[in-house]
């Protein structure tokens, strides 16, 4: 419950609720846990910064010699990510472990064994790869 699930499209949430109903019908207890992923937008931003930063560092030499061959959107992403300093990337590299510890603590507090989440934020997977990231 909260900002995480609110990020999903209604169609995805509807399918998720149908799956939860089947799980409950099978006799498995489902508990809705609040207060998890409260800063979901920040989590997404951190993830994008980390993956972009690592990607840019990996492709730095390719960028130097072949930057003109990158698509405009990719080139803009590369330029932005190359500006990330070492301190930021180091902090971002630690964030998945911190998040894991927070989630595990919440699981312990709620006395749950596993999380069940929707499979996709989008309602239906797009027909092309243009919007999947």
What does this structure look like?
The structure is a single chain. The protein has helices at 3-6, 10-25, 40-58, 60-66, 72-82, 86-110. The longest helix has 25 residues, at 86-110. It contains six helices and no strands. It has 133 residues and is an all-alpha fold.
What Rg is obtained from the alpha carbons, in whole angstroms?
Answer: 19 Å
- Number of helical segments with 4 or more residues: 6
Report the principal-axis shape. flat
Q: β content, as a range?
A: under 5%
Give unreliable regions as ranges.
none
Q: Return the average pLDDT rounded to an integer.
A: 88
State the share of residues found in helices, binned by percent. 55-70%
Question: What order do the helices and strands follow?
Answer: HHHHHH
Number of strands: 0
Overall structural class, as computed from helix and strand content, comes to mainly alpha
N-end to C-end Cα span:
25 Å
The main sheet comes to: none
In short:
The protein is mainly α. It is 62% helix and 0% strand.
């Amino acid at each position: 419950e909260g900002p995480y699930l609110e990020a999903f499209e209604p169609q995805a949430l509807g399918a998720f609720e149908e799956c939860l109903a089947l799980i409950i019908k099978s006799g498995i207890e489902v508990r809705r846990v609040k207060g998890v992923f409260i800063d979901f937008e920040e989590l997404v931003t951190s993830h994008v910064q980390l993956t972009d930063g690592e990607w840019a560092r990996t492709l730095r030499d390719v960028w130097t010699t072949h930057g003109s061959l990158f698509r405009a959107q990719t080139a803009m992403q590369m330029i932005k990510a190359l500006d990330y300093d070492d301190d930021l990337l180091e902090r971002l590299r630690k964030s998945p472990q911190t998040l894991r510890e927070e989630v595990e603590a919440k699981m312990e507090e709620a006395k749950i064994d596993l999380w069940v989440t929707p499979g996709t934020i989008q309602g239906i997977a797009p027909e092309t790869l243009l919007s999947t990231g």
